[in-house]
Structure formats: structure tokens, C-alpha cells
Design brief:
globular
Length: 208
């Protein structure tokens, strides 16, 4: 069975055009010595002036989008058209203003364009917490000094934005289509896909 989060990127108007097999996601890495408890909520992050970094110049605005979704914001209206909730956006901006005024969010955040860059700063101990690609965190972090949680939300339940990869097949030689379908079925098998995603540090898209 596919996880709900993995299905929308692989279908259009109810039809599948790919088989999801792995998803990348960003997390919040943090230094254990600076946080007595995992900083799952904005209250925990703003409690003391410990530096938080996220890529404020990210062209995809992944951290801001996660904040918006974490506060309950929707991206489409009842007709499926792009839409932003002004009230929720105001909540997001107020939290960022509080983070800036309390010295949690430095102006330097504006120079980073990707989670990989802010992860590099955290590895170098130039930040107390930072947005990081989960795969890189799992591969490079020191479990004695660092830990990670989902991106923070107001209530602390955490949130993540998955970027899903899918296998796809283009029309070609009809005599080879059956073989291609067999290959895609094997590649998408939870046993194989589970081992692959575990090795890469990605999220699986289905379960046995």
C-alpha cells in the first residue's frame, strides 16, 4: 500500500504516470548540548537565543512553506486554484520576526540558498540548529553530538515536505513493454525499495 504523501506527485487527473519509490525530505538538525529537550515547537526554539539557520534565499522557499503548512495553511482553494491564507501567512511572519528580535534567527540566513548549505554550517558548529537534508544528516552527523527532529510546528507535531521520485515508462517497442512492466514491478517492490531507501537515507513510499 502506498503512503498518502507519495501519491499526488505521481498522478494527474486521477491517472498514474509513474510509480513512486523514494522521497527526499529535510529535517531540523540540532546540537544535543545546546537543547535539553528536542526542539519540536517554535516555543522551544525561541526559548533561548540559540542560533537557528534555514536557507532564507532558497528559491523554492522550503522552510517557509513548511512553516505555512505547519500553521494549517492551504495552497489551493475549493476549486483547486493556487491560494494563500493571509492570516496564516501573518502568523508565519510574526514568528520569524520574533526569531529575529530574540537573536535566534541571524541576518546571515539570507545568504543561504539550500538546506545543504545550512547543514554545512551546523556541522561546523556555527549554528545551534539548522535545516538539513535527511540523507546528508544520516550519513554525516555525529550521533554523540547531534540529533534531528521533523521541521518545527506551533504544536510540536512536526512536519516534512517530501520530494518524491518515481519510476516511469515511455512508449516504445511493444514487444518489450511486458518486460519493462516486470522490471518496474520489481523495482517498486517494498522489499527492494525499502532496502534502497534505507541505504540512501530517503523515505519509503510504500509498506508491505
Amino acid at each position: 500500500a502506498w503512503y498518502d504523501y507519495a501519491l499526488p506527485p505521481s498522478r494527474y487527473e486521477g491517472l498514474f504516470y509513474g510509480l513512486p519509490f523514494a522521497s527526499e525530505v529535510e529535517i531540523l538538525g540540532y546540537r544535543i548540548d545546546l537543547y535539553p529537550e528536542p526542539p519540536r515547537s517554535w516555543e522551544a526554539l525561541l526559548a533561548e537565543p540559540r542560533t537557528l539557520l534555514f536557507p532564507a534565499a532558497d528559491p523554492r522557499a522550503r522552510f517557509i512553506l513548511a512553516m505555512y503548512k505547519g500553521f494549517g495553511g492551504k495552497l489551493t482553494d475549493e476549486n483547486g486554484q493556487p491560494w494563500l491564507d493571509v492570516n496564516v501567512l501573518e502568523q508565519v511572519l510574526n514568528v520569524l520576526a520574533s526569531a529575529r528580535s530574540s537573536s535566534v534567527l541571524p541576518l546571515a540566513a539570507r545568504q543561504y540558498t539550500s538546506p545543504l548549505e545550512t547543514w554545512t554550517e551546523l556541522k561546523a558548529n556555527r549554528s545551534a540548529s539548522a535545516m538539513a537534508p535527511m540523507a546528508d544528516f544520516l550519513r554525516e552527523s555525529d550521533p554523540e553530538s547531534m540529533a534531528a527532529v521533523a521541521l518545527p510546528t506551533e504544536e510540536g507535531q512536526g512536519i516534512g515536505l517530501a520530494h518524491t521520485w518515481s519510476w516511469a515508462m515511455t512508449p516504445g517497442d511493444p514487444s518489450r513493454e511486458a518486460l519493462m512492466v516486470e522490471l518496474l514491478t520489481w523495482l517498486s517492490d517494498p522489499v527492494f525499495a525499502g532496502s534502497l531507501t534505507h541505504a540512501l537515507g530517503y523515505l519509503p513510499t510504500s509498506q508491505e
